[in-house]
């Protein structure tokens, strides 16, 4: 078992208000955010996980939420400085911060760049005000445009725009129009994904009427062509970028890399080669519990739960991530990053190949590779079921 690259996810739990489709661990802002105290808790949390670093440098940091752009540049700067004091950074580290247009003050992005942020991901979701209202968003289309323009002029290496399709009351013309407006804002990266109804959301308890499957497929096919014609390459199920501007943090997830998770409800995945095992961690979910003082003289623990991934579950977990990507991959990666023999999944690969879901090829150095086909990505759930 090899030790993969290491990333860090930082969770900021507060939003101005909870969106009806959101199942993330987010909490409506009530009063002033205790950002100074929370940043200190984040750094204390990270300190407790340092034994998982195992001599590695950080490949990427992703500050997500919630709405991280509710925090000041000073707070984010203290966070990044504190992280770097504990874990060295790779020379070309990618540091992403999520932002919502309705929380971005004029000039704020430039301040984030000055303290080390080099990539910003903006949750636009739609360019039509009626759709934004239906989604519970606090911004309008004009604010979305201004946020993108501010990101483009802030000196960032890259910025991403999040856009959803398959929205309530949305037709083909609406969806493609949204996409063309986002492309016109010239982001280096676009996350374009279909709205899904998740449990424990307002939309789940009161489902809106969504487009039919045939309309959704037309949106997907024609939207993909529009993105491709504009120079964007699809490298992941919902990820499109200009050449060389893929999200490195997400790539590390999908390549079954390791990541530490700090902050309310954050998840981590860590490889322990000496013990030949992979562990997952989850931190305390609610801000009150996460930030509560220790009840003893001992330092408080931020850990809610941790467990070893069972060997029977590893094949599915590996391929659930790896098969999202459009790049081919060496068969040896399965053994390298799970510690399991490739023979364990050979039969599944044969069945996938027979069904036209995956192809076998050779790399430039004649290493056996697998490549998911277009059919395999369209029927990804069917493909994944072969590895359960």
CATH fold naming of the largest domain:
TIM Barrel
Beginning-to-end CA distance, first to last residue: 21 Å
CATH hierarchy class name of the largest domain: Alpha Beta
| Helicity level | 25-40%
Descriptive overview:
This protein has 388 residues and is of the alpha/beta class. The chain folds into two domains: 6-253, Aldolase class I (TIM Barrel, Alpha-Beta Barrel), CATH 3.20.20; 314-385, Orthogonal Bundle (Arc Repressor Mutant, subunit A), CATH 1.10.10.10. 35% of the residues lie in helices and 24% in strands. It has 15 helices and 17 strands. It has helices spanning 35-48, 73-86, 108-114, 129-134, 141-152, 172-184, 202-205, 213-229, 248-254, 287-291, 314-322, 332-338, 346-354, 374-378, 380-385, and strands at 6-12, 14-15, 27-28, 58-65, 89-99, 119-125, 158-165, 189-194, 233-236, 239-241, 258-263, 267-272, 277-283, 303-308, 329-330, 358-362, 368-372. The strands form four sheets. A nine-stranded mixed beta sheet has the order 9-10-8-7-6-5-4-1-11, with helices on both faces. Strands 12-13-14 form a three-stranded antiparallel beta sheet, with no helix packed on it. Strand 16 and strand 17 (368-372) form a beta hairpin. Helix 1 runs parallel beside helix 2 (73-86) and helix 6 runs parallel beside helix 8 (213-229). The two termini are 21 Å apart. The mean pLDDT is 94.
């Amino acid at each position: 078992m090899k030790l993969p690259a290491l990333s860090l996810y930082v969770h900021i739990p507060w939003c101005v208000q909870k969106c009806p489709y959101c199942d993330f661990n987010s909490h409506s802002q009530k009063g002033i955010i205790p950002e100074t105290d929370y940043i200190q808790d984040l750094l204390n949390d990270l300190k407790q996980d340092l034994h998982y670093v195992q001599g590695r440098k950080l490949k990427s940091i992703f500050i997500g939420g919630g709405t991280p752009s509710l925090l000041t540049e000073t707070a984010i700067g203290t966070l990044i400085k504190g992280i770097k004091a504990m874990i060295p950074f790779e020379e070309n580290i990618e540091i992403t911060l999520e932002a919502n247009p309705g929380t971005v003050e004029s000039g704020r992005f430039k301040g984030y760049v000055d303290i080390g942020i080099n990539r910003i991901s903006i949750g636009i979701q739609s360019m039509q005000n009626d759709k934004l209202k239906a989604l519970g968003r606090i911004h309008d289309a004009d604010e979305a445009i201004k946020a993108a323009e501010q990101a483009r002029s802030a000196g960032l290496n890259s910025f991403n725009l999040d856009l959803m399709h398959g929205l309530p009351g949305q037709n083909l013309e609406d969806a493609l129009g949204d996409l063309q407006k986002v492309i016109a804002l010239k982001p280096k990266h676009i996350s374009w994904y279909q709205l899904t109804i998740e449990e424990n959301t307002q939309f789940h308890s009161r489902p809106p009427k969504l487009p039919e499957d045939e309309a959704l497929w037309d949106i997907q096919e024609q939207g993909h062509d529009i993105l491709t014609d504009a120079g964007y390459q699809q490298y992941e199920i919902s990820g499109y970028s200009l050449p060389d501007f893929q999200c490195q943090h997400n790539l590390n997830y999908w390549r079954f890399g390791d990541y530490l998770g700090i902050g309310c409800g954050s998840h981590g995945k860590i490889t322990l080669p000496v013990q030949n095992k992979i562990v997952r961690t989850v931190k305390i979910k609610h801000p009150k519990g996460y930030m509560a003082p220790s009840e003893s003289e001992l330092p408080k623990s931020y850990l809610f739960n941790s467990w070893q991934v069972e060997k029977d579950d590893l094949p599915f977990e590996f391929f659930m991530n790896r098969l999202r990507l459009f790049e081919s991959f060496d068969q040896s990666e399965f053994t390298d990053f799970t510690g399991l023999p490739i023979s364990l999944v050979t039969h599944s690969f044969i069945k996938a190949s027979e069904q036209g879901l995956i192809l076998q090829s050779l790399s430039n150095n004649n290493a056996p590779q697998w490549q998911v086909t277009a059919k395999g990505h369209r029927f990804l759930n069917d493909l994944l079921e072969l590895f359960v």
